[in-house]
Amino acid sequence: MGAAALRALPWALLLLLGPLLPGQGLQANATRVSEQPWGEPGGITAAPPATAQEVHPLNRQHLNHSSDGHSKPRKAFPVLGIDYSHVRIPFEISLWILLACLMKMGFHVMSSVSKVVPESCLLIVVGLLVGGLIKAVGEKPPILKSDIFFLFLLPPIILDAGYFLPLRQFTENLGTILIFAVVGTLWNAFFLGGLMYAVCQIGGSGLNHIGLLANLLFGSIISAVDPVAVLAVFEEIHINELLHILVFGESLLVVLYHLFEEFANFEQVTIIDIILGFLSFFVVSLGGVFVGVIYGLIAAFTSRFTSNIRVIEPLFVFLYSYMAYLSAELFHLSGIMALIASGVVMRPYVEANISHKSHTTIKYFLKMWSSVSETLIFIFLGVSTVAGQHYWNWTFVISTLLFCLIARVLGVLVLTWFINKFRIVKLTPKDQFIIAYGGLRGAIAFSLCYLLDYEHFNMRDMFLTAIITVIFFTVFVQGMTIRPLVDLLAVKKKQETKRSINEEIHTQFLDHLLTGIEDICGHYGHHHWKDKLNRFNKKYVKKCLIAGERSKEPQLIAFYHKMEMKQAIELVESGGLGKIPSTISAVSIQNISPKTLPVERVIPTLSKDKEEEIRKILRSNLQKTRQRLRSYNRHTLVADPYEEAWNQMLLRRQKIRQADHQNAYLTVPANKIDSPTMSRARIGSDPLAYEPKPDSENLPIITIDPASPQSPESVDLPNEVPKGCGGLPPSPEEDEEGLVMRPKEPSSPGTDDVFTPGTGDSPSSQRMLRCLSDPGPRQEPEEGEPFIPKGQ
């Protein structure tokens, strides 16, 4: 076997090095190989000899050399060569991307320009200039093809918006978004298409050949709000999340195009076709969502097993999302809805499985990818405007622009009036204005119109011209004026505040509180179903899609862990972990006077075992989410036969306690004569209702003039000294007049009214003061009140 291997080794070297050998050596080797007998024993079976038609390349080269008789003159070795066709496509793509990045950087450097003009407007202007220069040179400018737009440029923008979608605001306003997206899109398409058909019938000979279905198809293209333009403009003006999510959510449902395109190809549309068409409207939308959910769950399940190979974690997010988009487009479903659904579903589970470095990679790569795609879209929109064929019709173009604005305003006003009947937080007139004014059109409408076939739609150039006019008007006029209008109307903007743990606790508390209120009232609202979904997610889904103990970690602990990590990263990036001082000379150190620096808070370092022990203690001792018991409804409760008797018993006990409570203060000894102080207090509070008791003949009589009654506040009861008190004998005048009421003398400046004794502060007056302040017998302790003995 070893001899056979050595015998076969020269053949292998000949096949590998044959093309590199010179002609003479190759000829000798070829002759030597041909002289080798076939089927020589030695353990290796050789191939049969080649026929006349099948000549070995080495033998063919040998024959060519022998037939020529002499070799061709050898060409000099090329030191430098140019082959542009070999690298033309990637080289031009790189140049366009480089141009887009440089333009984007230049706009942000010129802050005075970027504050006035939106970035999308400047990019379209750059595209127009580049397209004009290419055309002036004599070349044909490139046109933004629909396949490139929908397959490569649009997915990164939608994935970035879907992956970082504010899920709470989206779910809380899902009903409003669906009404604007479904009903609003249908209204705009039919309203605009019907009016444009009327214009075509009245407008003259150049428009009479455009039928109803073609106008409805044009209305479905131009009525859809563009998500790329909305994201580009709304992120610059920092509008609040409610308006942002309403307008962006409305722009996601772009499904009417294929419906009317199919109708336009039919010779006759029947009722069954219309019913199936509207059924396909919902199938396309919900089918895209279903495909996105499936791929999102698969991506989350795959990320569970990537703990040993962290490098490829971001790749799974991008690939599964893009596969969801392509799979939806494969079945003519909504790829945009598939991307949004996959990003929303996979994010909470993927972020729990992947490392923080992978999370940072996903975040910045998506932002970079979407920013470059958005820049290229607007630049190519300007270039395609110069390069495309246009057919200008004043009647059609002006009517399209006018009816687009009217349909948008009417649709928003009518739908908002209906929506506000069911919303707790109403949409104000300012919000309605921003929603109507922010309905921008963009490259999606341009690309959809570019997909139309000339054979079936010979008016495509006129449609394209009208669409470009509407795009330029919405992007330039509305996009440039929406920022000053937002400032003028004082519309609430997005607050760039970090969410605190306190806010998270109160948010969860309010969610549970509202869920309990809905359960008690028997009303199953969105809080009830949200709580059901959270319980199902925690009980089943998290255990399958999240690895390790993170699946059992409470939401509050997970949020605290995320905040902790974010603060640590910000601390490291800001250089707060202690900077190493630079080398300072000894002389400079002696010249610097020592200053007392503020004591910095030292953060104790914990070991991993100690940290894990603290986490276990928190998990076991924090109050867990309440377990759902039986849902009670006031309409379905069974009447208790003993309920009335229990109520009567409770009422009797309550009355007895109230009576005991009053008797504890109002009961006095049976044969005790009222003191003069108590008598004065009663007659001062209510002189007309006072009637002296039969056994009170010996009490002094108080004479009060009803014409000028004194208020109780002007009488100082402690200074009213009865006769014979205070160590002074009663005067004859006092015997005749009875008890004398003396007003309190004003205190001299510099004395304390409370602690400085006055002339009437005798021991007897102090005893009367204590009598007035005494509430009476002490109240018995109520039932169930804790008894704490003295000394504890």
Automatic annotation (TrEMBL):
Arranged from A to Z, the UniProt key words for this protein are: Antiport, Calmodulin-binding, Cell membrane, Coiled coil, Glycoprotein, Ion transport, Lipoprotein, Membrane, Palmitate, Phosphoprotein, Signal, Sodium, Sodium transport, Transmembrane, Transmembrane helix, Transport, Ubl conjugation
Q: Which InterPro entries match?
A: Cation/H_exchanger_CPA1, Cation/H_exchanger_TM, NaH_exchanger, NHE-1-like, NHE_CaM-bd
Q: Which residues form the Cation/H+ exchanger transmembrane domain?
A: 98-486
User: Which terms under GO biological process does the entry name?
Assistant: regulation of intracellular pH; sodium ion import across plasma membrane
Q: Which residues form a coiled coil?
A: 608-635
Where in or outside the cell is it found? Basolateral cell membrane
Which residue ranges run through the membrane?
93-110, 117-136, 148-165, 177-198, 210-234, 241-260, 272-297, 371-392, 398-420, 432-451, 463-486
Where is the Sodium/hydrogen exchanger regulatory region domain positioned along the sequence? 584-672
Membrane topology, from the record: Multi-pass membrane protein
Reaction it catalyzes: Li(+)(out) + H(+)(in) = Li(+)(in) + H(+)(out); Li(+)(in) + Na(+)(out) = Li(+)(out) + Na(+)(in); Na(+)(in) + H(+)(out) = Na(+)(out) + H(+)(in)
Q: Spell out the family assignment given in the record's similarity comment.
A: Belongs to the monovalent cation:proton antiporter 1 (CPA1) transporter (TC 2.A.36) family.
Protein name, per record = Sodium/hydrogen exchanger
